[in-house]
Design brief:
CATH topology of the largest domain in chain B: Rossmann fold
Order of helices and strands of chain A: HHHHEEHHHEEHHHHHHH
CATH superfamily of the largest domain in chain B: P-loop containing nucleotide triphosphate hydrolases
Oligomer: heterodimer
Largest interface: A-B, 31 and 41 residues
Number of domains of chain B: 2
Number of domains of chain A: 1
Largest sheet of chain B: 6 strands, mixed
CATH class of the largest domain in chain B: Alpha Beta
Number of helices of chain B: 18
Strand order of the largest sheet of chain A: 1-2
Number of strands of chain A: 4
Helix content of chain B: 25-40%
Radius of gyration of chain A: 23 Å
Largest sheet of chain A: 2 strands, antiparallel
CATH class of chain A: Mainly Alpha
Distance between the termini of chain B: 18 Å
Structural class of chain B: alpha/beta
Number of strands of chain B: 24
CATH architecture of the largest domain in chain B: 3-Layer(aba) Sandwich
Shape of chain B: globular
Strand content of chain B: 25-35%
Radius of gyration of chain B: 25 Å
Number of helices of chain A: 14
CATH topology of chain A: ABC transporter involved in vitamin B12 uptake, BtuC
Structural class of chain A: mainly alpha
Shape of chain A: globular
Chain lengths: 355, 515
């Protein structure tokens, strides 16, 4: 009896399963398609030099998108990351140029590692502020982080009266001359920033998949009430996601200021939108509870490769923006289809069990 | 109360409604009399709501007919039913708290000039007229969100009246009302009756039904087990028809001695939003291996009591002891660690994360069990899940499927598994049999019995008389946030329970005398 139901269900489930597999791998397929397309139509696209430059571009967005993925999966949103990038770049630039004047006629100078730690703490602190607003003061994440977006951007402008901190070459005497290496150095032929991305990406994927904290992020985003009643410490989870997002943004601030050997307060403007786009492209649900770090990174690559490739093909910047928009909308439409097929497959399988 | 005085306005003949898996209505014959209150009563899942949904056009009969004035009618939507003069006030009010009273009343039926410009003045005027008719002094420009629940109910009724409802269905209208508000509602009902409106009144409060009703219809498992005029009807008669002779499949009791005190609650108080108390000074004690049933009507404060015990609310007074250890600040995670576990009433909103897999839902409360440091042993998790799937007889295709693909009964077993995986010493179960089929119910009851025999203390809340009588070792009755009765298994009767559950809601005799 069970045999007949199983075999009756199998031919129906078959095509759906293949379809589901294709839909699930869609971002990856899109990446391959984009890659093949530009290898054919864009000159020098496959050259090593181009690959290195492109991966550096992608890495910046990918960092932010990884942090953003956790926030979105937990049911929130973080609009402040672009401004945190700007502010953290300025903090790094200020520390490199001036150190901290403690008012005794001399100032404390820092080496590269210390500067990076301080800047990371600034990013994490802004993330903690976001979390405080969202959890304790009950401000909607969109509004809370919109507020910190403005505050951080304003603070960045104030730090230099809107000027650029130039020539951030550091000083060998203080041990900060190595700061430039973060953006321009490489290890085994691969840029340092890519190594950093690999480390952060693996860490985030591990957190998401193999730690209770990761599980709780998904649970809180899926159903906050149920998670709370199951003993999940919701407030703690939210603090983590916003602080992690702030940390990722601080890393980007460090890398950019190092790459440019200068810090400009307007750096990072609208970066948050690219990060959200990458996360969504990678299959993260804006309503929370669903999303993968791997998907987000692939999503960031699709966006990055697309825009760099179009530049190389000589497509106008205006058209690039339009194309990016179309890709994002298409991704979400396909995502909807995937959810439907997935639910259908699950229900069919459940129906085959009997109840 | 003779026939001609109350003509039949609508009737159902041979009405059957089949849902996938269950038959909600079995060939029912129902007459709705105009100018009278037609009372409808039955336990949860007996088919009351289904029957009213059929009349209001929310659902269609699988077979059978609905007749009005001798002609068959078919309502494919609520709009269509509305055009035939049928209005329904659902238990959960369908109002927009962000709009004014007048805007709510005329929602989707706005009075307009030339079809576009809303004639706010005309709407206000008509709203005032409706409010006068309902003897309420509610300003048409007040936001509905600012009104008390009782007043919101009046707005709902006004909404139906504004669409010329000749038949008005009230689904548990008094569950959220204070005594004074109930009195006002009853006056309104009297008035509507005298205007010839046919009223269907659904409630669990039996004394209230006897007071307000002219005709009564009792449903049990989709079948009408009693229908007559209210004369000579008493609570015993209603209960007899509601429960009947045939018993549900309750697992046999497993003889075992009770152990030491597992849970003690002292003077628990929880304020509600209306300035009163949702839980008002409740104290109770539970021993190991004991099943304590809490019976009461909706809104009696039972759910709030359990949630207060598990530590969901921060603004509570009162102490909780588990196995003699006093609990600290109310925090759910701490209390779960101390051996409490809650199975919430509302699976969808409080029990499960629908988007996550069955596996992830089951282990959500007990990830520490397979975590070392911060590393989760996923293989260990899978084997734990497999063990509980087998133990709880959960029918699933794969633990990786989303939990939303499961039937209500299987979902409930997932929630119970989640609670049991924490290794609790006291289990708090809120309406554990709500919305699940008979087979799954029997399964859940069997598990409860077994757990109790293993020494767990169980507090379970239900509004099902039969359930509370068959499963509990001891029964507490709650009403208006207070304990209004406590009975041992030996001394308890249905009538005692029903009487105790109505304390504070009993009809006002003084008023009757003056009337």
């Amino acid at each position: 009896m069970t045999d007949t139901t199983a075999s009756a269900a199998a031919p129906q489930a078959g095509p759906n399963n293949t379809l589901l597999l294709l839909l699930k791998a869609r971002t990856f397929i899109a990446l391959i398609l984009v890659f093949v397309f530009f290898s054919i139509f864009a000159p020098n696209f496959l050259s090593t030099a181009n690959m290195v430059i492109m991966s550096k571009h992608v890495a910046l967005n990918a960092f932010l998108a990884i942090g953003m993925t956790f926030v979105i999966v937990s049911g929130g949103i973080d609009l402040s990351v672009g401004s945190i990038v700007g502010l953290c770049g300025m903090v790094a630039g200020y520390l490199l140029l001036n150190g901290i004047d403690i008012g005794l006629g001399w100032s404390v100078q820092f080496n590269t590692l210390e500067i990076c730690l301080i800047v990371a703490l600034v990013g994490i602190a802004i993330g903690a502020m976001n979390a405080f607003l969202v959890t304790k003061l009950n401000v909607a994440p969109f509004i809370a982080t919109l507020g910190t977006l403005y505050i951080a951007r304003g603070a960045a402008m104030l730090s230099s009266e809107g000027e650029t901190f130039p020539n951030l070459t550091g000083n060998a005497e203080y041990g900060s001359h190595t700061y430039r290496m973060i953006g321009s150095g490489d290890f085994l032929g691969i840029p340092i920033s890519i190594w950093m991305l690999i480390a952060v990406g693996l860490l985030a994927a591990y957190i998401a998949k193999r730690t209770p904290l990761g599980r709780f992020i998904y649970a809180v985003g899926g159903n906050e009430r149920a998670a709370g009643l199951s003993g999940v410490k919701v407030t703690r989870v939210k603090y983590f996601v916003y602080m992690f997002s702030g940390f990722c943004a601080a890393l980007v601030g460090i890398i950019i200021s190092s790459q440019l050997v200068a810090a400009h307060p307007a750096t990072g403007d609208t970066f948050e939108l690219n990060a959200i786009a990458a996360a969504v492209l990678g299959g993260t649900s804006m309503s929370g509870g669903r999303g993968k770090i791997g998907g987000t990174i692939v999503g960031a690559f699709v966006i990055g490769v697309l825009s760099d490739g179009l530049v190389m093909m000589g497509v106008s910047a205006f058209w690039q923006t339009v194309i990016k928009g179309i890709v994002i909308i298409a991704a979400v439409v396909i995502d909807q289809a995937q959810q439907k097929v997935q639910a259908k497959v699950a229900l069919q399988a459940q129906a085959a069990v009997g109840k | 109360m003779s026939g001609p005085a109350h003509p039949i306005g609508l009737s159902i003949r041979g009405g059957t409604k089949v849902y996938p898996g269950t038959v909600a209505l079995k060939a029912v014959d129902f007459d709705l009399r105009m100018g009278a209150v037609n009372v409808l009563v039955g336990e949860n899942g007996a088919g009351k709501s289904t029957m009213m949904k059929v009349i209001a056009g929310v659902e269609q009969l699988s077979s059978g007919r609905v007749e009005m004035d001798g002609r068959e009618v078919r309502f494919h939507s609520t709009d269509e039913a509305e055009r035939h003069g049928i209005g329904i006030v659902f238990q959960e009010l369908n109002l927009f708290p962000n709009l004014t009273v007048a805007e709510n009343i005329f929602m989707a039926h706005e009075k307009t000039r030339l079809g576009v410009d809303i004639d706010a003045e005309a709407q206000r005027a008509e709203t005032r007229a409706l409010m006068r008719r309902l003897e309420h002094d509610i300003d048409p420009d007040t936001l509905v969100g600012d009104l008390k629940v009782g007043q919101q109910q009046i707005v709902e009724i006004a909404k139906s009246l504004s669409r010329d409802a000749r038949i008005l269905i009230l689904d548990e209208p008094t569950s959220a009302l204070s005594n004074a508000e109930v009195e006002i509602l009853f006056r309104v009902i009297e008035e509507l009756k005298s205007e010839g409106v046919g009223i269907v009144y659904i409630s669990h409060r039996l004394e209230e039904l006897i007071r307000v009703g002219d005709y009564i219809t009792v449903l049990r498992d989709g079948v009408i087990t009693g229908a007559q005029s209210m004369e000579g009807v008493d609570i015993a008669w209603i209960v007899r028809n509601m429960i009947g002779e045939s018993s549900k499949d309750f697992a046999k009791e497993i003889e075992h001695p009770f152990g030491e005190e597992a849970l003690r609650v002292e003077n628990m108080r929880l304020a509600d939003s209306g300035g009163g108390f949702a839980v008002d000074g409740v104290s109770l004690s539970l021993r190991q291996g004991e099943i304590l049933g809490i019976y009461g009507l909706m809104g009696a404060g039972r759910t709030e009591l359990l949630e207060a015990i598990i530590g969901r609310y921060h603004n509570v007074n009162g102490d909780v002891w588990v196995h003699g250890e006093k609990m600290g600040k109310p925090r759910v995670a701490d209390r779960i660690a101390k051996g409490l576990a809650l199975i919430p009433e509302d699976r969808k909103h409080d029990g499960l994360v629908q988007i996550l897999s069955i596996r992830e839902n089951m282990t959500l409360s007990s990830v520490e069990a397979f975590t070392q440091g911060f590393h989760m042993d996923l293989r260990g998790e899978r084997s734990r899940v497999a063990e509980f799937v087998k133990r709880m007889v959960i029918k699933i295709a794969s633990p990786e499927n989303p939990v939303s693909a499961l039937s209500g009964g299987n979902q409930q077993k997932v929630v119970i598994s989640k609670a049991l995986m924490t290794g609790p010493r006291v289990l708090l179960m809120d309406e554990p049999s709500r919305g699940i089929d008979i087979g799954a119910k029997a399964e859940v009851f069997r598990v409860m019995r077994q757990l109790a025999a293993e020494g767990l203390g169980i507090v379970f809340v239900t509004s099902d008389l039969e359930e509370v009588l068959s499963l509990s070792d001891r029964i507490i009755v709650m009403s208006n946030g207070r304990i209004t009765g406590e009975f041992s298994k030996e001394e308890v009767t249905e009538t005692k329970l029903v009487t105790a559950s109505a304390v504070g809601h009993a009809p006002d005799r003084a008023e009757r005398e003056t009337a």
